[in-house]
Every structure is written in C-alpha cells, then in structure tokens.
Amino acid sequence: MLRARGRRASLHWFHLLVRHLGSFSNPTDFRSSSTFTNRAQFLDSMRSLKSEESALSFFHKMVAMNPLPPDKDFATLFGVIVKMKHYATAISLIKHTYSLGVKPDVHTLTIVINCLCHLKHTVFGFSVLGAMFKIGVEPTVVTFATLINGLCAEGNVGAAARFADSLEDMGYESNSYTHGTIINGLCKVGDTAGAISYLEKIEGRNRGFDLLIAYSTIMDSLCKDGMLCLALNFFSGMTCKGIQPDLVAYNSLIHGLCSFGRWNEATTLLGNMMRKGIMPNVQTFNVLVDNFCKEGKISRAKTIMCFMVHVGVEPDVVTYNSVISGHCLLSQMNDAVKVFELMIHKGLLPNVVTYSSLIHGWCKTRNINKAIFVLDEMVNNGLNLDVVTWSTLIGGFCKAGRPEAAIELFCTMHEHHQLPNLQTCAIILDGLFKCQFHSEAISLFRKMEKMNLELNIVTYNIVLDGMCSFGKFNDARELFSCLPSKGIQIDVVAYTTMIKGLCKEGLLDDAEDLLMKMEENGCPPNEFTYNVLVRGLLQRYDISRSTKYLMLMKGKGLSADATTTELLISYFSANKENSALQVFLQKFV
After folding, report:
1. SS3 call for 460
2. Distance between CA atoms of 322 and 357, rounded to whole angstroms?
3. Is 170 helix (H, G, I), strand (E, B) or coil?
4. What Rg, from alpha-carbon coordinates, does the chain have?
5. What is the pLDDT of residues 418-438, one digit of tens each?
6. Residue 244 φ then ψ, to 5°
7. Cα(144)–Cα(139) distance, rounded to whole angstroms?
8. pLDDT at site 349
9. Element (H, E) at 473
10. Are 273 and 250 in contact (CB under 8 A)?
C-alpha cells in the first residue's frame, strides 16, 4: 500500500514537471482504428517513421488498439521520436501513456531523462531520477551515463565527475562509457589537463576499464589545442601500456601532424597504421586531402585521391569539396569546375559547402555573373543559402564595385530566414567603406546597433577606421569613448586607429596622451602603434618627439616600417647640415 501511494505521489509529481515544462504536443485524437496485419509489419512501420507528424499519427493508432501494445513497443516509438530530436514531444507522449495505465519503467523514464538533458534541463532529469528511486524503479548504467552526459553538455563537468564518484560510493559501478563521457566533457570545455588528471585517477583504480576511447579523446583534444608534441608522447605512452590505437586515434594524430605541416610524418604514420592491419577510411584520407588543399598542394591532394581508389575507398562529397575549395582559394576556377563536373559524373550530389566554395571562388575573381549563376543552380536544387554563402556574396559584390547590390542582399537576408552574423556585418561594413560608401556604411552600422546584434571589437574597429578616413573624427571619438559602456574591451587596433585619427587632425598632444593611456589600461602599444605616432609627428615636423619615440622603439627592439623609413630618409636628405640628427637617423635608416 505504501509503495502504491509513493508511486501515485511520484507520478503526480512527474505530471507537474511536464506541466511546468509546457504542453509540447496535443495527442488528443485517438479515434483511429487502423490495425497492422502482423507484428513484423508493425515494427517495420514504426522504425521507418521519418517525421514528427507521422510519429504522432502512429502513436494515435497504437493507443487506439485494444489491448494496448506492449510497453516495450511504446518505448521503441519514443526512441524513434528522440532520434528525430523532438524531445519535448516524446516527454508529452510518455506522459499520456502513463495516463492510460502504462506503468513507468526504467526504459521510458531514462528516455524522459535523456530528453530533459537535451533540452538543457538536466536538473529536472535528476528530479526524475529521484522519482525512480521513490517508486522502486532501479536505474541502469545508461540512466546514470545520460545524466553525466547532460551535465557535461551544459558545461558542468565538475558536477558530472562528482556525481560519478558518488555513484561508486553508493555501490553503483561506473563503466568506460561514463568515464569517457566525463573526459570528453572536460576536453570540450578546454580543460585537457583536467581530462588527463581524471584519466590518471581512473587508471590508478585498476578496474580493467577499456580506456581506448578516453586516450583517443584526449589525444584529439591535445592536437586541437596545438600541443602536438604532448599528443605524440601520449600516443607513445598509450602503446607502451598495451592499449592498441584504433582508427579514431590514428585519424586524430594524422590530422594534428597535417595541421602543423608535418606531411612526411603524417604519411609515415598512415603507412605504419596500414602495416598493423588498420585500414584507413574515407575520413582518414579526407584529413590528408583537406590539409593539402588548404596549403595549396592540390597535386598531392589528387595523388591521395588516386590512392584512395586504389585501396578501395571511394572519395565522397567531403573529399571533392576540399579539392574544389583548394582550387577556388588559388583562383583556379576552370579546374574547380572540372572537379565539380567529375563529382556529379560519379553520382555525388553537391551540397551547400560545394556551391559556397564555387561562389566564393567566382566572387574572389570578381566574376559576379558566374557567382549568381551558381547561386541560381544551388537554389533550383533545393538547397538553402547559409550565412556563410550570404556573407561570401555580399563581400563579392563589394569587391566587384557593386555596393548597392551588397546592401540589398544584406537587407533581404531575414526574408530568407537568415540573420547576419558578426562576420557578415564586418564584411559589408568593410566593403562599403572601401567602396567610398561612407554614409551608407555608417547608416547601416546604426541599424545594426538597433537590431541588437552583439557587435564585437572587430566590427567597431572597421567603423572607427572608416569614420576617421571619412573625416568624421568627432563621431569616431564619441563612439570610441562609448565602447567600455557597451561591454567592449578596447584592443590595440582600436587605440592605434584613434591615435592615427588624432595625428591626422593635428592633435599630437592628445595622441601622445592616448598612447600613455593604452599602457595604463594594460594594452601595450605594438610596433604598428609606434610607427603611426612617429609618422604623425614627422608629418607635423615635430622632430623632438619623433626622436623620443624612435629611441623608445629601439629600446623595445621595435623597428621603423617602410613608410616611416621613407619619411626618415626625406628628413635625412633635407637636414644634411644637422650633424647630430644625421648620426641619429643613420641608426634607423
């Protein structure tokens, strides 16, 4: 009796939880009496569902059956819905089955926890875990791993590790998956050192965990962090401990070596891998092809493609995209089109990345008509432009001297369900200023601010430079002074831009004051900053202060750039009678 009362109370609590999260679905029409001829057809139909609407229709048919299908069939359907990423719908349907008398079990409640974690409500997932204990449903290792994964996905990796430790204290055994999830979470938040420490801790317990995935995850993270030497040492230590690397581990290391331009070592590692009987897959070859293409080594990339076919691995869309992008980066558009045509001949369908690369290539070569032709083909093939494609087109129109078209594109993005990102904003503002469309650029910038776009310092630097160049220095000064109140950290580029503007306006004292303020604010001037100030002083014939800052630069190991040197040479020629100046200038020229 007490157990039944506890179960009813917990179910009541669970219904309150679902109500708190909102009504995600409304499966109220259960009048369909459709039936299936046999169980095989029933399960096949369920597993072949492709949309939320078809899943809801199937659910309606299930609850209309008399008797109801087994609980495990409902769990299978909920699993299908979760794979579609309709998490809220799955929770609502599970709630409805409980109202029909289906008893909560570990499978459906774990599905609920999984959905809550995907919805970033892991805290509610723990509440469901509490309800499981109350109604006597024993969680499985999958239940616990789901919660650990949810905490890690929300960036709360420390809590995930503590939860894993508490489970062991309660007598529940953690497994390789739970530990791997924590290590993966630590790596994703950038705490690779913490992941290594955690690995060392679980290795010390000597419980026979399969740590291959953990080692591969850490090695991949080290490579992405640029710590290739440490990754190579980790790889050696892994093999010394008798843990044999798998294809994933090799792929991570090959990618790391390629990223650092260590091609010979990458190909040697590939050979060693194959000699050990681990055959490369398309991802392995794609790493090599992509990195070769990014380095402009197209011929070597194509050699890899030929080798792929030789060993029975067919290049896929990603492979062809890398080669097309490589040709486009080198402005080899005829070659890019040939690879594109070969790709289609092989029966592969181009995707957004394919078309975006071609659009970028045609824009780079200022052939806007070809870019628009590719765009039309892309749309006709049912592909939607992403923000990268929009940004590429906008930049291309600016480079081709068609800023009005760029503005029109930017303003119509929302009609195609796309919002400009920071890169889009930077591209169009920079393009408009370079096309001498200063007023339009400033007007568009004001609109961006009203759109509540979270503009960054890069965008503001473009606007500051444009205002200073356009003769709107007072506007630039006002904007510069407002940056801290907008939560923007002023960088060396912004300071240097304003110093250049002050020098152009003849406000040399203010320029010098701003240079000193930079250092006070923890943003030391760089070589470019000093050169800008020295040139400003020289152009106003302020030899004394020019000499002061040239000496300061020399003491810091900084050099005069080409433009500053040219000015110094002109002063050297015009002041041959000043011997002291001659001796000083000879140190810099």
Report:
1. helix
2. 9
3. coil
4. 32
5. 888 888 899 999 999 999 998
6. -80, 125
7. 7
8. 92
9. helix 473-482
10. yes
CA–CA distance, 192 with 214 (Å, rounded to integer)? 11
Closest Cα to residue 177, out of 201, 202, 159, 200? 202
Q: Taking each helix axis from N to C terminus, what angle separates 562-574 and 527-539, rounded to the nearest 10 degrees? A: 30
For the purposes of burial, counting CB atoms within 10 Å of the CB of 548, is it exposed (0-12), middle (13-18) or buried (19 or more)? middle
Which two tokens mark 49? 């569902």
Alpha-carbon gap, residue 228 to 490, rounded angstroms: 33
Using CA atoms in the order 281, 282, 286, 287, what is the torsion angle rounded to 10 degrees?
Answer: -20
Cα dist. 501→489, 524, 532, 538 in Å? 20, 19, 10, 15
With CA atoms as reference, report the closest residue to 59 among 44, 87, 81.
81
pLDDT digits (tens, 9 = 90+) for 170-197: 777 777 777 788 888 888 777 888 888 8
Contact call for residues 25 and 93 (beta carbons, < 8 A): yes
CA–CA distance, 257 with 224 (Å, rounded to integer): 11
Nearest-angstrom CA–CA distance, 414 and 329: 29
Residue with the two structure tokens 């430079």: 465
Q: Which three-class secondary structure string do you get for 84-133? A: CCCHHHHHHHHHHHHHCCCCCCHHHHHHHHHHHHHCCCHHHHHHHHHHHH
CA 502 and chain centroid, separation: 38
- Contact predicate 456/462, CB 8 Å: no
Is residue 497 within 8 Å of 465, Cβ to Cβ? yes
Q: What does the longest C-alpha to C-alpha distance in the chain come to?
A: 110
Q: Is the separation of the CB atoms in 357 and 390 below 8 Å?
A: no
Q: State the CB neighbour count (10 A cutoff) for residue 308.
A: 22
The tokens for 411 are 């303003």
**Two tokens at 102?**
């289906």
Separation of alpha carbons 532 and 537, rounded Å: 9
Q: Which tokens is 116 given?
A: 């809550």
DSSP 184: H
Backbone angles phi, psi at 8, to 5 degrees: -65, -40
Q: Find out whether 136 and 10 touch, Cβ atoms under 8 Å.
A: no
CB 586 within 8 A of CB 575: no
Query: Distance between CA 365 and CA 438 in Å, rounded?
Result: 24
Strand blocks (E) in 125-177? none
pLDDT value at residue 205 = 67
Supply 374's token pair. 């590719």
Model pTM score: 0.64
Helices (H), 276-332: 282-294, 298-310, 317-329
